[in-house]
Amino acid sequence: MRVLLRWLRRVLLLLFVLVAGLVGLGWWTMRGSLALLEGTGSVKGLGTTVTIERDERGVPTIRAASLPDLARAIGFLHGQDRFFQMDLLRRRAAGELAELVGANALPLDRGARLHRFRALAEEVLRTQLDDSERALLQAYADGANAGLTALRARPWEYFLLRSAPRPWAPVDTILTGYAMTLDLQDGAARRDRTRLLAEEVLGADVAEFFDPRFTPEDAAIDGSTGPLPPLPGPERLEVRKLTAAAAPVSIEFESEPLPGSNNFALSGRRTAHGGALVADDMHLGLAVPNIWYRASFVLPDRTVTGATLPGTPAMIVGSNGHVAWGFTNSYTRNARLTRVTPGTAIEEAREILHVKGAADEILVIRRTKDGVILPGDKRRPELALDWNAHQAAFANVHLLRLMSAKDAGEAIRLFQGAGIPAQNVLIGDSAGRIAWTLSGRMDLPVPPVYEADALWTANNRVVGGESFQMIGEAGFEGPARAAQIRDDLAAITHPATPRDLLAVQLDDRALFLARWRDLLLGLLTPERCANHPDRSELRSFVENWGGRAAPESVGYRVVREFRRTTSERVLAPIVAALKARDENALGNRLRSESAIWEILRQRPAHFLPAAFQTWDDLLLGAADEILKVSVPKSGRPLPEFTFGEINRARIRHPFSSLLPAWAATFLDLPSDPLPGDHQMPRVQAPNFGASQRMVVAPGREQEGIFHLPGGQSGHPLSPFYRAGHEDWVKGNPSAFLPGPTLHRLELNP
Fold this sequence. Notes:
globular; alpha+beta
């Protein structure tokens, strides 16, 4: 017995030592992978010493004697704070995620590898960059690798994945740009495919009714609008026949937010100081760490401040003292689809997808002279995609030159030659001039420019006439958000300040839903509520909804749910007909709000879905659905059916889903109920929204405002992991420029 006890004690001691060793190794790795904040470091190739000063939020001010030294220094910081994020971006573009994280990433890899971006990036590096640009990317790579190796332990994410980071190379910066292209543009052409399908199934005129390019409510900067397409008669569309021919389907109405953004600007004639004011908030998926990394670059002849993208040395948005700029996604024409007809010559190429812990997979990529053949539904002809992103000539690193632009005119020329995804750019300069143009090397005879005293874009149609015919469209959004921004700017009748434009960014008034509220109140009449106390309670909340997407509002959520349920009922037969032809059809890719309202205004019998006897049945049933389905689903009484319950932050680290809930809070940002929604300036969903907010006047950066969800560092033990996040949640006006220095690091040759 004593022998057995001694043996058990030894086993337990050994287990304790092993567990303690693993915990100790993990803790050493976590602490050892924290970035250097003070002292000295070294980077190969530096011409002279570079100083890096960080403020209380970890925002660095980099003082360098030359642009190559600056590139090495920002590369060093990115390599220390964000290397794993950089790695994910280059792998996302190249279709190499499964090699790092396993088979779960194969669907993403198959979609990305279709475009063969790694080979294309090599071609861009070789043919589209001059020697100085290649040298700059090499300097950035040297800095990133120096930052990585200066850590006492590999980044903690690689420890958990039991892998080692691969060094950064200049081609990886090009791949980072392609990762953003995949995020901002639809490499699967889903929007174009859905529109083409709608024309095939419904006819071009009916497709235009459900997806109009022009409406009377449009908020283009040139004032262009257009009449609504006429409501199709029964000879063109009989919804009950469509319903009979297609199985019912859930359309997931507006379930997938599209990459977007707001930007707007006022000229010097509208501001308190006579210089331009530029505001920008880029709407993207939100995660930890945030996609952007704040910095201020101080060179002998200029200072540039704003947001960088880890993986590149460029300042993506910001101000250089002379010019400020910001982006929104333009949804202009950037691709062409061609049906693959029988007998078309097809070439095949094979790509190897490496998979961690599993066998390699062979991906066969098929091409015609018209582009790469997209995976599709066998019930439809195959489609070939010719995408601008597939051509090396459409990519370069000319955005780096923007840091030296002296005025709006020079910035316009630089943006029009920059090899980045096509974006709406708003530019303002210290002399007070503002302008809109499109970024990117687009296939246009004369890229358009528009100037005024107030400009705004919100992923809507921006211009009409010849300019619209020139740039085309690929699924721009409806006009509600842009119109609200336009009217907010017009309401600023005093000389504007940065706080005035921040108030526009934070505008969460539910103007878009006001007519839906009126419709719902018109349905919930006293007679219809007399014997239904639950309807009476519903009406009282709608009457007192507050008119904002406020977390505490029950009425806002009720009206929002009423719109969603009603729209799904009206559109379901249409989407079912599309899915009967192609199961990948996406009803939320159609701009159908104006069509739905025209149908509800006229309530024609030939548009009434077969599931309902009358239009009142459809509408009142949509209201009752909120009581029958949504409230029981929440498990709470109606007074607790608040908007904040569903619009609660879910900004998570990629690893947190692998952990128990209590441990995930260590990596994730707080689960705050958030104001704002999609069809208003303050765009907000649980894991989608303003990835940054910026308001700045070039030359007066000390008065500017900047927000980030989350902090600078990707390391959960860093004091900068969440620093500044609360200001983003609450909309507090935090400073654009870095604050007083708390940490100082020197990088030496």
